[in-house]
Specification:
The protein has 254 residues and is an alpha+beta fold. It is 48% helix and 6% strand. It contains 11 helices and 4 strands; from the N terminus they run αβαβαββαααααααα. The protein has a 4-stranded mixed beta sheet. The model has no long low-confidence stretch (mean pLDDT 94).
Amino acid sequence: MPDHPDSNLYPEATGLAKSIVDKHSAPQPLKLYSGWFCPFVQRAWAVLEEKKIPYQYIEVNPYHKPDSLLKLNPRGLVPTLQYDNKPLYESNVICEFLEDAYPDHGLKLLPSDPYQRAKGRIWADFVTSRVIPSFHRFLQYQPDQTSTPVEKLRSEFLDALRQFAEAMDGAGPFFFGKEPSLVDFVMAPFAIRLWVFDYFKSDVGGLGTPVKGEAAEHEDSWARWRKWIAAIEARPSIKETTSEREKYLSIYQR
C-alpha cells in the first residue's frame, strides 16, 4: 500500500516553533504527542504555553505511528496527552482538562461566570461543527470536480466567520474581552491558516473577506473580526507554535 501523502511532510517544526520544541525536549511526566503541522495539536500546544505547564514535546508523524503513541492511543491520533501515564486525546477535551488539572497555572481558560463558560463552549462547538467543515469545503473546491459553486462555498465560510465575530464581546480584542480563553484557542489555528485561500484559491477570488468600508450592514461585524484576528495572530503562544509558512504548503496543496 502506498504511503499516505502526509507521510513525507517536513519532519519537524521550524522557525519560532522549533525554539519552543527545543525548550521542551527534556523528559517530563506530562507529555504532548504532536504533529507540528496540525491545527488541533496547536490548540493544546498553545494552551500549554499559556498556562506555563511543564511538558515534554514529542514530535510524531501520525502516518508512521511509533509504538509509544499506539500504546497510549490505539488510533495513533495527535494530539495525545500522556498524564500520569494515562492517555487523553481530542484537542478540546485536552484543553479543558489542562484548565481543570492545573487551575493555578497561568491563564484562566474559562470565565468564572457559569453562563459565560457555557457560551464559550457553545461557540467552541460552533467552530467544530460550522467553521471547520466550511473551511475544508471551500479549500477543497475544484472547478472540474465540485458541483457546488465556489461563490456558495465562500459565502458559507465567510458567514460562519461573521457569526463567530458577532458573538464576541464588543470591546475585545478577544472573544470575551481583554484576555483570550478556550474559545479563542479553539478558533486560532484555523484563523491563522486563512492565508491558504489567497494562496491556493487566487484564481477564484481568494478568501474574500470584506475590507473596511465594503461590508454594508455587516461593517461592524467585520471590523470586530479584524480586531480579533490581529490580536490572536500577535499572541506569543500562537506565534511561537506556528512554523514557517512554506512548510505548510504541501499539506494544503492537494
